[in-house]
Amino acid sequence: MFLKKLMPSQFVDSIHHIDIDQLKRNKVRAIITDLDNTLVEWDRPLATPEVENWLKRLQEAEIQVTVVSNNNKERVDRFCSPLDIEFICSARKPTNRAFLQAVRQMNVTIAETVVIGDQLFTDVLGGNRLGFHTILVVPVAQTDGFWTRFNRQLERVALNWMERKGMVSWRRKA
């Protein structure tokens, strides 16, 4: 069923609520993460000190990170290069290509990798289609670009339906 492909494995308020020690216990060696409204606001060019600290903690835990973004090279490179983070831009999520490219580049398996993002129809759907553990985060910003606003309307419909059917074990903020 299509809606099951939209169901994240996990839901947290932000990347900072992801238990890094639990990831290690679960033998996670890599993270594929979205950029805009997952790590920082879509219009914030650089990482915040909190995001930099989170990335440092992942590095200390020996968990690799690759940013996979539908945004353009200029935007993603500007964010990732100062942090020395690998990235794939213009990813065309939810298609498989960028997700598979990321695991190949990190030399890990899908079972050793989690996908983190703020959108059901790009991050969660893309990750679930390939069998990744997916983590949905609350968007960092309340504003979005044009296409993301359209996706958010569809997400609300899907999430409301999932809640009514008892498919979600977490409660969304209004």
Automatic annotation (TrEMBL):
InterPro entries: HAD-like_sf, HAD-SF_hydro_IA, HAD-SF_hydro_IIIA, HAD_sf, PGPP1/Gep4. GO terms for cellular component: cytoplasm. Pfam families: Hydrolase. CDD domains: HAD_BsYqeG-like (cd16416). Transmembrane segments: none annotated. Gene3D superfamilies: HAD superfamily/HAD-like. GO terms for molecular function: phosphatidylglycerophosphatase activity. NCBIfam families: HAD-SF-IA-v1, HAD-SF-IIIA, YqeG_hyp_ppase. This is HAD family hydrolase.
